[in-house]
Each structure stands twice: as C-alpha cells, then as structure tokens.
Amino acid sequence: MTAPISSEAGSLPIIFFIPGAWHGPWVFDDVRSILSARGFGTEASSLTTVGSIDPRIGVLSDAAKIRSALIKIIDSGRELVLIAHSYGGLVVSNAVDGLGLRQRISKGLNGGVITILYLAAFAIPSKTSLLAAVGGSYLPWWGVSGDGFVTPTNPADVFYADVETSLAEKAIASLKPVPIQIVKDISTFDPWNNGFEVGYIFAEEDQALHISDQRGMFAQFPAGSFSASLSSSHSPFFSMPGALADTIEAATKHALAKRLSK
User: Fold this and answer.
1) Residues 163-208 pLDDT 10s
2) What is the pLDDT at residue 22?
C-alpha cells in the first residue's frame, strides 16, 4: 500500500469508474471497497450501450451519460479522479471537454477532473474511430451479429486469463451485447492535448489490448504523465484489486502534487 495522502491536500477527490464494453459497473466493487476503506469516496456508472436493443447508439450516447453523472458531482464543488477501462477510455475522452479542473478554475468555478487514468484502455486521437485504431478490421474475437451487435467470443481467455474460475464464470454470465456502432463512431476530443492531467495503467499480460498497443497510446501523453504496470490480464480489478487500488492511490497522489504545484 502507498503512503497515505496528506490531509493538507484537502478533501480527497472522488474516484469515478467507467467500465468497458459488455461490462457493468459491478466489476469495480472489490477495488472500490478497498479505496473506501482508505477514505476515498467512489462512484461508478453503467454505459447506455451495454445491453441496449438499439443498434444505432454508440460512443457519443455513452459519453453523454457519463458527462451528466460527472457534472452532477463537479457542480457540487468536488474534484474527481476518473478511472476508465478498455472501451471506457474512448467514452471518457468524449465526456470531459470543459470539465477539467484548470478549465473550471479559469471560469471561476470550483470542482473538476484532476486526472484521467486509462486502465488498459483506448486513448485514441480525435477524428479517429476505435475500428481505425485497431487497424480497420474487426478483431477475431468480436462476434458480430447480423442485427448490428457484437459480443466477445472467447472472454475467458481474452479478458479473464488470470481470474479465479468462479469469478470469471460470474463475469462471463453477466456480459451483455453492445452495438457495433461503438467501434465506428468518430472520437471528438483527446484530453491529453487539451490541458488535462492523464495517466496510464498497463496490464502487462492483456490478451484484449496488447501491451505494445497500450504503450503506443501512452506515448501520446505529455512528458511527466503518470504510468504504472500491473502483471495482469485485461481485468486487474478482478485478479489483483489490492494492487490496482495501490496504483490508483499513487496516481491520485501524483495528480494532487501537480495540482498543488501550479
């Protein structure tokens, strides 16, 4: 566990989790419990696309839902650390324009996002789609149906290779289809090029988003951005929630130190 954050930093920020495609916010329950025991408030949101019956909705629909949830917290004057997993990275990038702490302070407003942590997540440039980011073709494990939805065909290996069997089975049973539109929508905002503090948490043994791709996305971030590695599959919130909580706490300390130095 990292050293405690000094009370001189003021009220601790709220840690807000955004899941990836097919998953619900319950996947973060264990890491949220650990962080709560350390004094952090936590929140997590579902995505509109997960389990949707409308094949036309995609990234922007998910981003609108997340943005609405963030605004409610920020407008109360609170500061946020955002943890975005997998496809959730694309969602959060498109949800935060105008919500950064520096942007808010420049307008005389309190509260805001102090950092975005991409957890084995897509951090792609604006004017790019997820499909383009993976090379322009559907990935082999994307099971695309004729009615416009996609489900993972081998989640046990792709997502949960190091997860305890009963928990992996529970996770697999809870997966829900998403519209294939999520890979086609064009991203409209890249926070790292617009004044946001960002960081990346690498999953070294990831079979869904290869570590080389994760590192390539991190290479876009400004010098001095936080990074950390976990020797996990795509789902460290299941296989090593304690180590993930430690990493989130370290990233929060990093962001608070940079915030207070400005």
Assistant:
1) 999 999 999 999 999 999 999 999 999 999 999 999 999 999 999 9
2) 98
3-state secondary structure of 232: coil
Q: How far is CA 49 from the centre of its chain?
A: 15
Residue at 21: amino acid letter: A
Residue 11: what pLDDT?
80
Architecture in CATH of 7-260 = 3-Layer(aba) Sandwich (3.40)
The residues, ordered by sequence, that sit 6+ positions from 151 with a Cβ below 8 Å of its Cβ are: 22, 143, 145, 175, 177, 178
pTM of the model: 0.94
**Model confidence band, residue 141 (pLDDT cutoffs 50, 70, 90):** very high
CA-angle at 66, arms to 60 and 67, nearest 5°: 85
HSE-up of residue 66 (Cα within 13 Å, Cβ side) = 33
Element housing 29 (H / E): helix 29-37
As given in the structure block, the two tokens for residue 176 are 């829900």
Which 3 state secondary structure label does DSSP give 69? helix
| Domain spans in the chain, listed from the N-terminal domain onward | 7-260
Within the chain, what is the greatest distance between any pair of CA atoms? Answer: 56
